[in-house]
Design brief:
The protein is α/β, with parallel strands linked by helices and 359 residues long. The protein contains 12 helices and 11 strands. The longest helix has 21 residues. It is globular and about 60 Å long. The chain starts with a strand and ends with a helix.
Length: 359
């Protein structure tokens, strides 16, 4: 097991990365306020891991209230959130009852938002079971649900007490989900660590083959990169926005195609391809580097093109982006591999040329 600590002072928390961690109740017990938890998962993850986690906790004397949600981004909404509240209230869960999220990003986001708001704040633990959640959504305290007008529009910053990333959960992950997680890993290299990006170019085949050593290194390095940014800018007032490279386009793609049609990581991959194009259009990123990015995304089995959304529709959807300031859309762009910047002064003609591929 390897551990990285998100150093947020008295709210610091460990991220444990290793194998067979879900059955280790000793990792969880020190973080519980009371020996009672609400274990939130979904109907896909539950048959694999609910009994393992529940059994380990109950054997350690912890009472477990299971909450099983429907699976899919399309259920990341008020109705599902209220399902969580309803079951917490029906079980008479108290403010000291820890809410544990066992699943991917949707489970984590909904559970975290429920924890942030249930009785004005309950303790929260993340047990991410997808690669995407292990390297992105479980870290940094962003919780949210979607609104018909846009993704993650309603939520809160609420840090977990603990993150447990069991690499063995990736063995049961569908190939498409594994590849979607790779998008965020590649993103971390692009915005912060060119050497890590090169390592990914050299080891992408090992990762796709689910080599545990390669996966653990990719997850740990991603946690280190994201965690360091979160510590410096927890509430995304500046630098943390860099973690959204590819997301301005990506969130618009998810919304435009319909939530659940494209996985988040797939939309981010296509968004990174468009953002790389725009970076090259502005003379920031060299054309060879932009091609390297697209080549790695393709090798990872990720999409780099979008069909079914017009340039006009894309602009309309991007206007809802949360990074906008005073009505001006801000883009995360690359100066070079391993270095990203925030730009709001985008000439309309450059954006037109980038979006022309959608026509």
């Amino acid at each position: 097991m390897q551990t990285y600590t998100v150093a947020l002072g008295d709210r610091a928390y460990p991220i444990h990365i290793g194998t067979n961690l879900l059955s280790n109740a000793e990792l969880v017990i020190p973080h519980l306020v009371q020996k009672r938890v609400a274990l939130v998962t979904n109907e896909v993850v539950a048959p694999y891991y609910l009994d393992t986690v529940r059994g380990a906790l109950e054997n350690a004397g912890v009472k477990v209230v299971p909450v099983i949600l429907p699976d899919g981004e399309q259920f990341k909404n008020w109705e599902t959130l209220n399902t969580v509240y309803d079951q917490l209230l029906a079980a008479r869960c108290e403010r000291g009852t820890t809410i544990i999220a066992l699943g991917g990003g949707v489970v984590g986001d909904i559970s975290g938002f429920a924890a942030a708001t249930y009785q004005r704040g309950a303790p929260f633990i993340q047990m991410p079971t997808t690669l995407l959640a292990q390297v992105d959504s479980s870290i940094g305290g962003k919780t949210a649900i979607n609104h018909p007008a846009g993704k993650n529009m309603i939520g809160a910053f609420y840090q977990p007490q603990l993150v447990i990333s069991d690499m063995r959960t990736l063995l049961t992950l569908p190939d498409r989900e594994l590849k979607a997680g790779l998008a965020e890993i590649i993103k971390h290299g692009l915005i912060s660590d060119a050497i890590f990006f090169e390592w990914l170019e050299e080891n992408i085949t090992r990762i796709l083959a689910r080599d545990m050593e390669a996966l653990a290194h990719a997850v740990l390095r991603s946690c280190e990169i994201k965690g360091a940014v979160v510590v410096r800018d927890e509430r995304e007032l500046g630098e943390r926005a860099l973690l959204n490279f590819g997301h301005t386009f990506g969130h618009a793609i998810e919304n435009g195609m319909g939530y659940g049609v494209w996985l988040h990581g797939e939309a981010v991959a296509a968004g990174m391809s468009l953002a790389s194009d725009l970076s090259a259009q502005l003379g920031m990123l060299g054309a060879p580097a932009a091609q390297r990015i697209k080549k790695l995304l393709l090798r990872a089995g990720l999409p780099i093109e979008v069909e079914g959304i017009s340039p006009t529709k894309m602009r309309q959807l991007m206007s809802l982006d949360k990074k906008s300031r005073d009505g001006n859309l801000r883009f995360i762009l690359l100066e070079r591999l391993g270095s990203a910047v925030i730009r709001a002064d985008i000439p309309p003609e450059a954006l037109d040329r980038t979006l022309a591929c959608l026509a």
